[in-house]
Amino acid sequence: MAADTLPALLREEAAELLALFPAARRAAAGGPAGGEAALDGMARAAYRVLRLAENAGALAALEKARPVPLCLSRQCAAYVRAAADVCRFAHFVPVWPRGAVWTPGHPQFFAAALGSLLAEALAGGGERPVVSVRLAAAKGTARLIVTRRAAPDSAGVLPAPAGADALGLALVRRYAAWCGGRFLRGTAGAGGVFASLSLPVCPPGPPAPPPGYAADRFSALYVQLSGVCDLPL
Predict the structure, then answer these.
(1) Planar angle of CA 141, 108, 56, nearest 5 degrees
(2) Among 96, 121, 158, 215, fewest CB within 10 Å belongs to which?
(3) Backbone φ and ψ of 52, nearest 5°
């Protein structure tokens, strides 16, 4: 079986299951208590399969693709803005550079990588997580830092990722190496955690249309944040 065959099959199965949910939700309206919650759990399970498929597919695709100039500052700002709209329980603190920052990369793979970092930060931050997303460039290197303040019950220990989160972080690490950069993850004072993605700066590339993450229910926004965000069902 080719490396990209299984991700494609998982993607197809998850999409077919999710296509049934609008009708199922209408049927459940006004039904027994707990029906909506059960449907929500099933939908998140389907999205979790889709996330595994997308990240496994991206890891396979990175072996064949080559980086292109990517406006990292624009991609970051668009994704975090969309994430704040669908994760209203969280408080995002974005800090962006004044000018555009370009690095080698790929919009699809970077969106999956950033989504993976935010998903881990949001899932472990308690009921009202505070997540800082900072991008800066100096001496030929762009550095993206995602920091989550300690949750009230945090033990100050860096959590070991599992399942979809583990594969997502593997994608981040592979993406960093693919772009000629590096990925670090650790604790950040008083029980918080941080993830740092350092990438080389490159000359600007051709202009690209702004990312429409919220317009597609199968975009990297909903797929990567499906464990915590408001799903478009």
Answers:
(1) 105
(2) 215
(3) -60, -40
In terms of Cα–Cα distance, which of 191, 224, 217 is closest to 52?
A: 224
Among the listed residues 160, 61, 64, the one whose alpha carbon sits nearest the alpha carbon of residue 110: 61
CA 216 to chain CA centroid, nearest Å: 15
Residues 100 and 205: beta-carbon distance below 8 Å = no
Helix (H, G, I), strand (E, B) or coil at 32: coil
Cβ pair 191, 153 in contact under 8 A: no
pTM: 0.86
Residue 205 and residue 158: Cα distance in Å, rounded?
37
**Which pLDDT tens digit goes with each residue over 125-184?**
778 889 999 999 999 999 999 998 865 555 555 666 666 688 899 999 999 999 999 999
pLDDT per residue over 53-93, tens digit each? 889 889 999 999 999 999 999 999 999 999 999 999 999 99
